[in-house]
């Protein structure tokens, strides 16, 4: 009787959960289909789809802890068989380091935190431990591997960077005021004071310098960062599958989740009839 009551509660919950997972996967599929791929250099700011190759960033590379291989991203799990022959997770982890995407024309930096990683290289193996058999699994994105990503792109610096000319001019003036030698250059009559005309010349000079520095900064390449969208309705996806294969995999996932939801709902309905 107790098992019957537990099933009567569990099956409806499973049906709701499976339906929700299918709906979320459908939302991901629509995002992949509806958003055309962009080039990093010409991509708009905001939610974008990018394709390219995974690359390591300068500095210390990410090292997969189980295999010891350098990689762009990893996720690992260590399991141990218990006395009841069940696999119990004893260690797990995921890389939170940054890596890059290169589309052949430009690069962007990817922050994989909270990303949904789909169908990446996975290795599994067993080994004998001091307390029994251990099972290892490790997922990796290796340098040079093809990437298909959807996320929020923003560029810091470069031509897309906005400069508050008025604020920057005020800050420049405050800096010049602390330099008596510079201020003396604008004292045309040499009386040790700056009159209204001379102050206006100071402000124009400060503004010209701020505008010149802004133009120089615009010539420098900006840093493009792809990360998790603030709008939780937009999926953050990273996959090594091409778009057609990714869409096919997502459709299979939707069918599986909704078939499970239908089966759980049917089971709950049969229990109610009984």
Quick rundown:
This protein has 274 residues and is of the alpha+beta class. 39% of the residues lie in helices and 30% in strands. The chain has two domains: 184 residues, no CATH class; 54 residues.
Explain the overall architecture:
The protein is α+β, with helices and mostly antiparallel strands. The protein folds into 2 domains: 184 residues, no CATH class; 54 residues. Helices cover 39% and strands 30% of the residues. It has 5 helices and 14 strands. The strands form 3 sheets. A 5-stranded mixed beta barrel has the order 2-7-8-13-12. Strands 6-5-11-10 form a 4-stranded antiparallel beta sheet, with no helix packed on it. A hairpin with a 2-residue loop joins strand 10 and strand 11. It is elongated, with a radius of gyration of 29 Å. The two termini are 12 Å apart. It comes from Plasticicumulans acidivorans. This is RING-type E3 ubiquitin transferase.
- Give the strand order, joined by hyphens, for the main sheet: 2-7-8-13-12
Tell me the major beta sheet.
Answer: 5 strands, mixed, barrel
Overall geometry comes to elongated
Q: Care to count the β-strands?
A: 14
What is the first-to-last residue Cα distance?
Answer: 12 Å
Mean pLDDT: 82
Number of spatially distinct domains: 2
Residue fraction in strands: 25-35%
Order of helices and strands: HEEEEEEEEEEEEHHHEEH
| Radius of gyration based on Cα positions | 29 Å
Helix-strand makeup class: alpha+beta
Number of helices: 5
Tell me the helix content. Answer: 25-40%
